[in-house]
Design brief:
The protein is of the alpha/beta class. The chain has two domains: 206 residues, 2-enoyl-CoA Hydratase, Chain A, domain 1 (Alpha-Beta Complex); 49 residues, Lyase 2-enoyl-coa Hydratase, Chain  A, domain 2 (Orthogonal Bundle). It is 43% helix and 15% strand. The strands form two sheets. The protein has a six-stranded mixed beta sheet, with helices on both faces. Strands 4-6-8-9 form a four-stranded mixed beta sheet. Strand 2, helix 1 and strand 3 form a beta-alpha-beta unit. Helix 6 packs across helix 7 and helix 10 packs antiparallel against helix 11. One of its GO terms (biological process) is fatty acid beta-oxidation.
């Protein structure tokens, strides 16, 4: 079905979809084909009720080295705002997520980036738009833009300070220097650091725990809360939480959450 990505279910849990950028000879540098396929795969996983967690990774030695330079050289200025990339996303109502890569937070399921190698430029953008970032000790990071005569694109100037703080964000964006996995963990650019041969095992085990033992309904709501609270006051966030808690207490998953705890058995959440 796809030419430059692959999609499979994890052996750890059938509820975990693994989306792999698959141009290993080019360190999974992004093309128009891969960009369209990645968005299609994410939307399909979001619509598939059997999928509860999405893991994004790269084939071979790289995560994503950014836009393929051959395509970047011929990128017309109008492409950045072309209708086929900027169309509204049905998955989320906020205008803030109606952007080229805004579908990452708009997806209702957690997106975990398993960063196995270089994450530069758009590769780093993808990682930042994910909900969590697990990295191999061989991973390396760079914003890259300033060293190509470009600027902080696709909202990274908003995302990066919220992840690593304003000082680190300025350093990474202005210098566009290469950052090691260890330094990335120290500045909280990544959440977990793994040995290279353990990255996917660890990531998929974590994803399977989310998929099997946590209410999908709760996860959907909490993910939306985490992204939307960045645009809310404390009062607005509290009002949203109060309304969602009222609905949660009346849900099937709340009933099951209490029952499996009292009965000391595996949860059987329906997501409703």
């Amino acid at each position: 079905m796809y030419r430059e990505i692959s999609v499979a279910r994890s052996d750890s849990s059938a509820h975990v979809a693994v989306v792999t950028m698959n141009r290993p000879d080019k360190l999974n540098a992004l093309t128009k084909v891969m960009e369209a396929e990645l968005r299609d795969a994410m939307e399909a996983a979001d619509c598939d009720e059997s999928v509860r967690v999405i893991v994004l990774t790269g084939a071979g030695k790289g995560f994503c080295a950014g836009m393929d330079i051959n395509e970047l050289e011929i990128l017309p200025p109008g492409d950045i705002r072309a209708a086929q990339w900027m169309r509204p996303y049905d998955m989320n109502r906020r205008a803030d997520f109606q952007s080229r890569y805004g579908y990452f937070p708009a997806v209702r399921k957690p997106v975990i980036s398993a960063i196995n190698g270089a994450a530069a430029g758009l590769g780093l953008v993808f990682a930042l738009y994910s909900d969590m970032r697990f990295a191999s000790r061989r991973a390396a990071f760079s914003t890259a833009f300033a060293r190509r005569g470009l600027i902080a694109e696709h909202g990274i100037s908003w995302l990066l300070p919220r992840v690593v703080g304003p000082g680190h964000a300025a350093d990474l964006l202005l210098s566009a220097r290469k950052v090691s996995a260890e330094e990335a963990l120290e500045m909280r650019l990544v959440d977990r650091l793994c040995e290279p041969d353990e990255l996917m095992t660890h990531t998929l085990e974590y994803a399977a725990d989310l998929a099997e033992n946590v209410s999908p309904r709760s996860v959907r709501v909490i993910k939306r809360q985490l992204w939307e609270q960045q645009f809310q006051t404390l009062g607005e966030a509290t009002q949203m939480a109060n309304a969602e808690m009222f609905d949660s207490i009346q849900s099937e998953d709340f009933t099951e959450g209490v029952a499996h705890f009292i009965e000391r058995r595996q949860a059987r959440f329906s997501g409703r």
